[in-house]
UniProtKB/TrEMBL annotation:
This is Cytochrome P450. It holds the Pfam family p450. The chain crosses the membrane at residues 20-38. It comes from the Eukaryota. Keywords: Heme, Iron, Membrane, Metal-binding, Monooxygenase, Oxidoreductase, Transmembrane, Transmembrane helix. The lineage of its organism: Eukaryota, Metazoa, Ecdysozoa, Nematoda, Chromadorea. Signal peptide: none annotated. Its cofactor is heme. GO terms for molecular function: heme binding; iron ion binding; oxidoreductase activity, acting on paired donors, with incorporation or reduction of molecular oxygen, reduced flavin or flavoprotein as one donor, and incorporation of one atom of oxygen; steroid hydroxylase activity. Belongs to the cytochrome P450 family. Heme binds at C465. InterPro entries: Cyt_P450, Cyt_P450_CS, Cyt_P450_E_grp-I, Cyt_P450_sf, Cytochrome_P450_fam2. GO terms for cellular component: cytoplasm. PROSITE patterns: CYTOCHROME_P450.
């Protein structure tokens, strides 16, 4: 037993220790962080000893400062010349990059399943409750991903993906777009023209198509709900590839000091809640006995029935699936058309050739997907557009699900792998003068369309874009209709910038262009009612 004096001394000592800890808590917190990060870094060095070679990196931030964030393909090509077609970068976690078409084809063929995973880092798991295999379609792997992808493909095909049924739906929204643009044009010395920012108009058009497919409804032009939702999507895509969030993904503790993190979380969950609320509305009116006309209803019907994969289907998963389909179906198509108009302004000779071919072949008849083969220069221009815009410059990383041997190096299970399509599309040995916009590279000596097997804008293998048919149909119909009905010009001969903005998607800077009407009457497939 301690006597009273000893107890008092112990209490005094404890008080002094507590005071010391209180006055030095910031120092102790920093030291704890340093020790933890040092331990993590040492483990990281040991784990990456056998990775392919790559550029020197800084502790904790890796090669983040080495990359041109708006033109990452240029940095990838530089490293490819130095280290070969397979190399390692750190952003800041280690990523093995495969930057060669033949290797991409080989490994997607031999190890399609083994390389079809998705990274399970902190940022990736925020909105899937850190489930081991993720959730949804884009950031998911394993049986859950297979179930979602199979269901989405089957449902989209039922709704007419790649068929005339879906073409009619696209034309409905396209007709609204053409009429709306036409309403802005005014007669100026015999020329019907106006200065227009196409971004919002295209967003409502393409957004209407994907909304019809996913939700069974669409927003009319100027709807504040749509504008708010699109802003959330734009901010999330821009921030996802930022160095600050990649740092949080590698070292989650840094989320407390990264300013943008809280905004990213808030907006990301707002997107998810948007779809959850939409699903709740469908659940109130859903009738299992009727044939579904949209993805949400089809999913709810499937959930109500007994299936072997039902354990992988839930309201939470449906919300993420819907967001994945919406983002994938909206952002890349709008971005592609915006770049298309921008390149036509910069390359007026290409625009003239397009006008000549469309006028000679179609005259005043609306374009049909089944007649693509009659428009070789249009096809070549779209291919060149999809190549040069490199709409997903970073791609979506894969994760090895099992050990794989590549070029004498072992990619261990759990390693992040980047299939670098941009390094293929800008490889000067495949596409000479890759930074130039040259549709002729997809034509033969007789002017016939000549597809290039190494053009892979929608990816390859197990993770190839499931909405490729829809996207190609949308881009063709929108692009041809816009060029058939209008011509696009710089305002006062001042070319809008063709520089790219940094982000998950390669988005052009906002621009306004002069649009002139080419025919007295609009040429369109469906004469839809005026937009409300």
């Amino acid at each position: 037993m301690y006597d009273r004096e000893s107890v008092v001394q112990l209490q005094v000592m404890a008080s002094h220790v507590w005071e010391f800890l209180g006055s030095h808590r910031v120092f102790l917190f920093v030291m704890a962080c340093v020790l933890m990060l040092t331990r993590r870094y040492l483990r990281f060095l040991n784990a990456t000893r056998f990775f392919p070679p790559g550029p020197p990196r800084l502790p904790f931030i890796g090669n983040a400062l080495n990359f041109d964030q708006a033109y990452p393909h240029q940095t990838f090509l530089k490293y490819k010349k130095i280290y070969g077609p397979v190399f390692t970068i750190h952003l800041p976690n280690p990523i093995i990059v495969i930057a060669d078409f033949d290797l991409l084809k080989k490994f997607n063929s031999l190890f399609g399943n083994e390389l079809a995973g998705r990274p399970s880092g902190y940022i990736y798991g925020l909105f899937s409750k850190h489930q081991p295999d993720g959730d949804g379609i884009i950031l998911c792997q394993g049986e859950r991903w297979s179930a979602q992808r199979r269901f989405a493909l089957r449902t989209l095909r039922d709704f007419g993906m790649g068929k005339s049924l879906l073409e009619n739906k696209i034309n409905d929204h396209l007709s609204l777009l053409l009429k709306r643009m036409d309403s802005y044009l005014e007669n100026d010395n015999g020329v019907c023209k106006a200065n227009i920012d196409l971004s919002l108009h295209l967003s409502f058009c393409v957004g209407g198509i994907i909304n019809d497919l996913v939700m069974g409804r669409h927003h009319y032009f100027g709807d504040p709900e749509f504008l708010y939702f699109k802003k959330l999507i734009d901010n999330t895509l821009k921030g996802f590839a930022s160095p600050s969030l990649q740092l949080v993904d590698a070292v989650p503790l840094t989320r407390f000091i990264v300013p943008y993190y809280r905004q990213y979380i808030r907006e990301g969950f707002a997107i998810q809640n948007y779809f959850i609320e939409e699903i709740k509305k469908h659940m109130k009116t859903f009738d299992v006995t009727t044939e579904p006309t949209n993805f949400i209803d089809a999913y709810l019907k499937d959930m109500s029935e007994t299936h072997s994969h039902s354990k992988h289907m839930s309201i939470q998963t449906l919300a993420i699936d819907s967001g994945d389909l919406w983002t994938g179906g909206m952002e890349t198509t709008v971005t592609s058309i915006l770049w298309g108009v921008l390149y036509l302004i910069h390359y007026p000779e290409v625009q003239t050739k397009l006008h000549d071919e469309i006028d000679n072949v179609l005259d005043v008849t609306p374009a049909m997907v089944s007649e693509r083969h009659l428009l070789p220069y249009v096809q070549a221009t779209i291919d060149e557009l999809l190549r040069i815009i490199n709409v997903l410059p970073w791609g979506i990383p894969h994760q090895a699900l099992a050990d794989v041997e590549v070029k004498g190096h072992t990619i261990r299970a759990g390693t992040t792998v980047m299939m670098q399509i941009g390094a293929v599309h800008f490889d000067e040995t495949i596409f000479p003068e890759p930074e130039k916009f040259k549709p002729e590279r997809f034509l033969d000596e007789y002017g016939n369309y000549k597809p290039h097997k190494k053009l892979i804008p929608f990816g390859m293998g197990k993770r190839q874009c499931l909405g490729e048919s829809l996207a190609r149909m949308e881009v063709f119909l929108l692009f041809v209709s816009l060029v058939q009905n209008f011509s696009f010009h710089a305002i006062n001969d001042k070319l809008p910038t063709i520089e790219r903005r940094a982000g998950m998607t390669s988005v052009p800077h906002p621009y306004i262009c002069e649009i002139r009407k080419r025919h007295k009457n609009l040429i369109m497939a469906n004469d839809s009612q005026n937009e409300k």
